[in-house]
Here is the input.
Amino acid sequence: MNKRVSMKDIASALNMSVDGVSKALRDSSEISEATKEKVKEKAKELGYVKNSLAVSLKIGKTKNVAVFMNGFFNPYFAVLCDKIIRELEKQGYTGMVSVVTGFELKMEAIETVFSNNCSAVISLTEPNDDVVKALVDNDIPLFLIGIKPKNKAVNYIITDDYDGGKQVGHYFLNHGYRNCIYITDSPSETSTRRLYGFLDEIKKDANKQFFYVPFSLKEDIIDDACKMIVENNIEFAFCFSDYVALSLRVQLRLKYNIYNTIIFGFDDITKTLKIYEPINSVATNIDAIVEEVVTELNKGQQDKNYKKRLEKVYPVKLSIY
Here is the structure.
């Protein structure tokens, strides 16, 4: 049986130190591009296969990344989570998905981070202060997608929610609808930004009527919205998410036989999930967001001196169907 090629073998062949070879294979900024290329070519020539588990045990971290989401009921989270897992695998990591209850990532939920020796965390739900402190104290980077954190130690990418709301409001005004409603199933700041963008645009015409179905722990938000639409002959509905928009459309059709209400969601999931009839929405480049988050995560893992904080707002545009 052939002996497994080690970094020591590569170092010996190139008259380098093992530490230098290790850094070159990890794309460390301490090593020149020419040396990295030379080391990688020699590794390929000798048939070197990276032993990720051995590296993990040596440095005390694995290639595991914890991914948190607050339920599969909203298909957007399923789509986003799938893209995150695929991108993590592409860049050499294993995504470990956990579903949390409620709208906050709490300490009990992140036990899996430590029990699985995770190197980083990606969350689609907002962490509380205790979670942020625990991760920072243990040098575990945290990346949020879709949430602007209160804590400056947290990395994040969000969509331009305010501008998305404004664009929907502009569409409403331009098409001459008389009245509108905003419906949300989330208490988040994200929902507030979308609402404020929408309101700031439609208030340009003081003659337009506005109705609002705010977040509530009640399970019949959609039914409340439908009743309001029927009672007030509301022509236009802007919903916090595509999940809310799709639920509203189904309820209006099945229970009230209403097909002509103009409905907008947010996230454009029907572009990806073809099982749904397309619905008007606000779209962004989800693939680019996921790739950037995982790439920044990887840079930090490969080079511990890499301290750039990720904070970015992605542009949005309307998807009209």
